[in-house]
Write a structure and sequence with these properties.
heterodimer, A: 2 domains, two-stranded antiparallel ribbon, 10 helices, 12 strands, B: Rossmann fold, binds adenosine-5'-triphosphate, binds magnesium ion
Chain lengths: 378, 232
């Protein structure tokens, strides 16, 4: 006969309400973890987009995401000639704020060469960029639709394709345009002195042929490190593997957020522990008379400890399920991406179990101290 | 009924109990000698504070004596220290308690309140339920088998509590004011039941009471005054 379940059923409404309250708290913990995972995923989405093995950037920089990087437009040809390189593409990256249909729109602009490496991995609607100019592929998060026209830096672009889930590390949705368009945009939007200096360059429109990075793919049978080594020998250029690029980005963008969110999650878990302990303690207080009676009629301690411990676990697990369900239902309505990984949920589940066991210690202590003789009084 | 065993079920010599120490010391029992025989229903009387509940607690191994010896069913239980490691097991097997306030568990229905003690004694679910039903019928509360304790009348609750006290066939039954909450007729029914158990099972029933209506129901009456038995 399971006393814990019987007692829960006896006070079902109250127990469920308490569990759901706890569930809200655990839901917040889960969403904190999800927000962190989303941050990492967002931060890496831009650098993973091109599917490159190798990044060539300006020497002495950790560009193009962590630091600025400007290299000549013909670097791509040199990279493409390296032994083992199968594909290469020039890319630009800049973020800007546009005023569109009366509202501010923060965008991450990516310039790439339409038939080369660097475009969006998957186009969910419409098509890729054609060779012509003033075309745009936009992430759905921009709110732009196919065929919509938007003015950026004085030119009017037409949306020809849509993607899903492409954002910069700060959460701004991505738009892709041709390399040439993006170079003009960069030139027009750069501060005046830089522009004057750059205008001495060779390009007739005034926008210099500089790019922020060259990405390359390496043949499967060639070690990426050897190609990277070869590229590093060039003056004015630096090269890094995809892994190195991801590490830089994770370190620079995510580390602070990780500490912040980690600390907050710890505080929340501590609060949850205290709350669970208080709930269990109160539930035990309410049952002192029954516990004394149980002892008097001969129930062993194990039975009494089991009653409290099982209720604590039920509380934690129902709360955890409620929280997890809640977050699964609402996670797509968060302004930034919330990523729920099964292993995170499982880890939190295990933590909740441990917390429940620890938190019931207080109640168990109280229950074991109850004098069976108190059952005889009024 | 043939009395095969003349040995007492409960036997104490010089049993004493004090609470607190120094100036706060209360000598609740000051050396009590008693032998209670199987088949007997005995009354424990005395003014308030004379030590009745204390004596019941010592027999039930709920409180630790301060001196003397205690034997239950021929086994030495206390002699300056507890001689049984597991007192709760002892209670489960040998002693049935009936409280003034029935102390039924509110989260179990009537049947399970009785079946619980059988369950704790290791009896499987089905026979435990059967036995609980049997007892409830025997105590004439069979019609309330699935009721919650909160919906029972005082007399019904008391009878369910008695069924629970009897479930493991204990031979020592301790009742503290079992009829205080009942009217004269119901008090009589409860006492008849306890008598029946004492006779049928060769059990000893000890009843602490202030209730003059039932004084004529006892084989022996012991009166406590200031922690001593003054007549027996
Ligand atoms: N836990 C305790 N701590 C200290 N003193 C106690 C305790 N329990 C009982 N006493 C004291 O021991 C004496 C005997 O108490 P006991 O409860 O045995 O009396 P009683 O005969 O059952 O009284 P009543 O008829 O009022 O129930 C009283 O003076 C009481 O105050
Ligand atoms: Mg008393």
């Amino acid at each position: 006969m399971n006393l814990a379940i019987r007692d829960i059923r006896h006070n079902l409404g109250r127990f469920l309400l308490t569990s759901i309250g706890l569930g809200l708290l655990l839901g917040v913990v889960l969403s904190m973890i999800g927000i962190y995972r989303g941050l990492v995923a967002d931060a890496l989405s831009l650098v993973r987009g091109p599917g490159a093995d190798l990044w060539v950037v300006e020497t002495g920089t950790r560009g193009p995401f962590a630091e600025g990087s400007r290299i000549p437009g013909d670097t791509r040809e040199a990279v493409a000639r390296l032994a083992g390189v199968t594909e290469a593409g020039s890319m630009t990256f800049q973020s800007l704020e546009a005023l569109h249909r009366g509202r501010k729109l923060r965008l991450q602009v990516v310039g790439h060469e339409p038939d080369r490496l660097g475009g969006p991995a998957v186009i969910t609607e419409g098509r890729g960029l054609a060779r012509g100019r003033f075309e745009l592929i936009a992430d759905v998060k921009t709110g732009l639709v196919l065929g919509e026209r938007i003015a950026l830096g004085g030119d009017v672009f037409t949306v020809v394709g849509l993607t899903r889930g492409a954002v910069s590390s700060s959460g701004d949705p991505v738009v892709w345009m041709s390399l040439r368009d993006s170079q003009v945009l960069q030139f027009r939007l750069s501060p005046a002195p830089a522009r004057r200096e750059a205008a001495r360059g060779p390009v007739a429109t005034g926008a210099p042929d500089t790019v922020n990075a060259v990405v390359a793919r390496v043949a499967a049978n060639v070690p990426v490190e050897s190609v990277t080594e070869a590229a590093r020998r060039w003056k004015h250029l630096a090269a890094m593997t995809q892994d190195e690029q991801e590490t830089i980005l994770t370190r620079s963008v995510v580390e602070k957020a990780r500490q912040q969110i980690g600390l907050f999650t710890t505080v929340l878990l501590t609060v949850s522990t205290v709350i669970i302990a208080l709930i269990i303690y109160t539930m035990t207080m309410d049952k002192l008379k029954e516990i004394a009676t149980l002892k008097l009629i001969g129930a062993p301690d194990g039975r009494i400890v089991g009653l409290i411990l099982q209720q604590a676990l039920a509380l934690g697990l129902i709360g955890f399920s409620a929280g997890a369900t809640l977050i699964t239902l609402v996670k797509d309505h968060f302004p930034r991406r919330v990523v729920m990984l099964p292993e995170d949920a499982m880890a939190l589940g295990v933590i909740v179990v441990v917390v429940c066991v620890l938190a019931s210690g207080l109640g168990v202590r109280l229950a074991l101290k109850v004098d069976p003789a108190t059952a005889l009084g009024s | 009924m043939t009395e095969t065993s003349p040995a007492p079920l409960v036997s104490m010599r010089g049993l004493a109990k004090h609470y607190g120490e120094g100036s706060a010391r209360v000598d609740a029992l000051k050396g009590v000698d008693l032998d209670l025989m199987p088949g007997e229903v005995v009354g424990l009387l005395g003014p308030s504070g004379s030590g009745k509940t204390t004596l019941l607690n010592l027999i039930g191994c709920i409180a630790e004596p301060s001196g003397g010896t205690l034997l239950l069913d021929g086994e030495r239980i206390w002699d300056g220290r507890w001689l049984r490691p597991d007192l709760r097991r002892l209670r489960l097997e040998k002693i049935g308690f009936i409280f003034q306030f029935h102390n039924l568990l509110p989260f179990l229905d009537v049947t399970d309140n009785v079946a619980l003690v059988l369950d704790m004694a290791g009896i499987p679910r089905r026979p435990a339920i059967e036995r609980a039903h049997e007892l409830l019928d025997y105590l004439e509360v069979g019609h309330r088998k699935t009721a919650r304790p909160s919906s029972l009348s005082g007399g019904e609750a008391q009878r369910v509590a008695i069924a629970r006290a009897l479930a493991n066939r204990p031979r020592i039954i301790l009742a503290d004011e079992p009829t205080a909450a009942l009217d004269g007729q119901r008090a009589g029914i409860v006492m008849d039941l306890l008598r029946k158990v004492a006779v049928d099972r060769h059990a000893t029933v000890v009843v602490v009471t202030h209730d003059e209506k039932i004084y004529d129901r006892f084989d022996h009456i012991f009166t406590l005054r200031d922690g001593r038995v003054v007549d027996g």
